[in-house]
Known about the structure:
This protein has 237 residues and is α/β, with parallel strands linked by helices.
Amino acid sequence: MVKLSYDLHIHSCLSPCGDDDMTPANIVGMAKVIGLDLIALTDHSSCKNCPAFAAAAKEYGMNILFGMELTTAEEVHVLCYFAALADAMAFDAYVYAQLPNIPNTPSFFGNQIIYDTDDQICGREEKLLISATAIPLDAVYDLVRQYHGVMAPAHINKSTTSLLGNLGFVPPDSRFSCVEVKNSADWPDLKATHPYLENCRMISSSDAHDLNSLREPLYFLEAEDASPEAVLRALSR
């Protein structure tokens, strides 16, 4: 077993709320500097910066997961993690088709910048990525599994865009086994209030939108080894 310090909720400059200097290479470089072992890129409803993220991770020798912060039809944010880039990009194509055709307004929402594997800007996403998709929450578990991934409802105790903030309860037919908590100190109370969570793995990450917000090595995940496949197994208990 290995013990990995992690930050599994990071936004690049592709997310309209992310700073323009949150390029995939800058994110990986900063994670390396602060001593993280494992990071995930989780832009809003898109994986289009994951190829550049993979290239930077290879250069820096960083362990990574490919990810997305999906917005469901109920406006609940769900983290979706993948071991393989091909699976992440196939999932991206599916989700993109479920986004409404609402154009981004960069002056209001922020830029949505795509980088190539040479760390150069290669495009800008025109659809507004923070829009709710047509994907209902109760479909996410099976959908993500089709692409060999793992889902984790994001910041479940946040007052907005979260499982408990938007729904107020954990649906009784839920099947997820991992959740992200905004403040890990709240975990005991959350489990006491929502017994379903007793059997879930809890993770806590930065939800960083700027380089200074990446989480220091405070939280650790034990896995069989540092491979993305082993990390996904650890997340899915």
